[in-house]
Amino acid sequence: MSIRRVAIALAALVVASCSMPAAGTASPAPTPATTLSAPASPVGPSRNPAKPTPNDDVVNYWGISQVAPFELWISASQRTDAFLLHTEDGRSWNRRPLPPTDVANATLRFVDRSHGWFVGDDRPPSGGCAAPGAPCRSVIYGTTDGGRSWTPQWSWPWSAVGASLRAFYALDARHAWVAEYGQGCTVATCSVRVRSTTDGTTWNAIGELPSFVTNMVFVSATLGWAASYTNMSGPKNVAEILVTTNGGASWTRQFHADGGLPRFAVSFANAREGWALGSDLERCGMSGCDASAYSVYATSDGGATWETRAQLLVPTDVSPDRQVSGGGFFDRIVFSSRSADWSGWITVGAGAGSGHGGVVASSDGGRSWIRSGGDAQGSWDVREVSSPNDPAVAWAVGNYLGYDGGFLAETGDGGRTWTRVLPSPLH
């Protein structure tokens, strides 16, 4: 795995340790640590059990977007060809075009059957970018026909830290936001604009965030949250969660943590219920973070107060059936549906060392979690999880460790068992 992939894994890691003090709220009593356990049942059978052989025909899967229980789009690549896969039933797939971007680091989002965006980096024909000054730009593409065609809507040159359009979030066919890194950004400091669209097509600068951004989430055209962090070389940095009530024009800090290199990622299911994932990059290496690095926080009043919901103890080894994986990088957190309580999902990337990826799942609002790490084909390096409708159902997309090939897997029991849906014959 390349050093560039390691840098991306570390830069994208989303985190803030529960030992860090949170500002602006009363500190809750410590929550007992949750040791990540294997699901009660083994990984389910694959619909396509033959393990792919590494060759030029292997397909890799990078992102997922879902608008109905079985209507999905998957961003994929085969050799140098990037493309989109679409299904309306979760079984039969159609291939559609994607813009000529770095698909492995792009964001794919659909909000209905017709409207979607693809945010990625245009690269020169020779390959990589030597930022700053290279002919590389981050570009927002839009589609109104379900991905059959794409139109560039906005672009911005790379800065010294690489891609300039990050933390994209789409609410509906008219409203979306992106964090735009300024040309003066360095590894230590960055001026970040918030750019948005209110017609689904044109993009305007509307506000600013204090520094680097992990992610943004909106529950209406006016109400949203952002996770931001500083990256100085000194002994103390700050990760914070900020709220906007005017569509991104201004932001107010709600919650923060101090540490060496703290990070937050944030997810809100509605105007009141939210969660944050955190740790500190100083406690991480090439294979992942130390065993007690991760914490989950929760709010039930729109972020005015937060409580420590769980500390996640990461196993350091891999069980024989890969149900519990060691190491890896906990990345994105998503809470979006509920029955008796809210269901949540955390993606786990593999990094560049011996750590393994997977999916961490909760069915009780983040109080307890289980972890799955692969299937009969191998261990997972998970890129995204989607679960917008049913609290027991989710889809995970990523690539296998040890050979060049990807997967799409589905669970119908809250992450206890998974069935591999892709690779499958494409038409």
Description:
This protein has 427 residues and is mainly beta. The protein has a single domain (12-422), classed as Prolyl oligopeptidase, N-terminal domain (Methylamine Dehydrogenase, Chain H, 7 Propeller). Helix content is 2%, strand content 46%. The strands form eight sheets. The protein has a five-stranded mixed sheet, with no helix packed on it. The chain has a five-stranded antiparallel sheet with strand order 28-29-30-31-32, with no helix packed on it. Strands 2-3-4-5 form a four-stranded antiparallel sheet, with no helix packed on it. The two termini are 31 Å apart.
Compute the number of helices. Answer: 1
Rounded mean pLDDT score: 81
CATH superfamily: Prolyl oligopeptidase, N-terminal domain
Tally of separate domains: 1
Instruction: Quickly name the level 1 CATH class.
Output: Mainly Beta
**Biggest sheet character:** 5 strands, mixed
Distance N to C terminus: 31 Å
Percentage of residues in helical conformation = under 10%
Q: What spatial form do the alpha-carbon principal axes imply?
A: globular
In spatial order, strands of the major sheet run 1-23-22-19-18
Strand content: over 45%
Q: Layout of helices and strands, plus pairs?
A:
Elements: H1 3-12, E1 33-35, E2 59-68, E3 71-78, E4 81-87, E5 94-97, E6 107-110, E7 116-122, E8 137-143, E9 151-157, E10 165-170, E11 176-181, E12 192-197, E13 204-209, E14 212-218, E15 224-229, E16 237-244, E17 252-259, E18 262-268, E19 274-280, E20 284-285, E21 288-289, E22 294-299, E23 307-313, E24 329-338, E25 342-349, E26 358-362, E27 370-372, E28 374-375, E29 378-386, E30 394-400, E31 406-411, E32 419-422
Parallel strand pairs: 1-23
Antiparallel strand pairs: 2-3, 3-4, 4-5, 6-7, 7-8, 8-9, 10-11, 11-12, 12-13, 14-15, 15-16, 16-17, 18-19, 19-22, 20-21, 22-23, 24-25, 25-26, 26-27, 28-29, 29-30, 30-31, 31-32
